[in-house]
Amino acid sequence: MGHHYVPPKRASLKRQQSGFTLLELMVVAAILSLLVALVAPNLLGRSDDAKVAVAKTQLRNIVSALDLYRLDNGHYPSTAQGLQALVSRPSSYPEARNWKQGGYLPSLPKDPWQSEYLYISPGAQGAYDLLTLGSDGREGGEGDAADISSHAL
User: Fold this and answer.
1) Which domains does the chain have, with CATH numbers?
2) For residues 115 and 37, what is the distance between their CA atoms, to the nearest angstrom?
């Protein structure tokens, strides 16, 4: 009975496995772009929320340092002395008689948008005003561009 084994044609297999069709690639690209469109706004929104949370935490730390400064020296730093008085001993009036060696903060943090925190003493809302102007660097604003004040913590 002469059944001979005939091996499969390798050329036809190679042709079938050579790659994706243009249609398959377009479908994959469409799915990926849809996922990016859905996920990217959520990630960007989370980033803004995280920066606001960091700003609030930094404000709380500065408030604690200001309170310790006042306990030691009987007053808050003046506007002219600024927050730098928490890092290095101020030489101007009002004198910091019991300034703690080593300071009250290791360094002055910038807000998450790389701007200085604003400090005014005496402030319009109490002993001092301490705030960041948010992502836009201007007064007012909405969302992550809104001002964040230590009075609102």
Assistant:
1) 51-149 (3.30.700.10)
2) 31
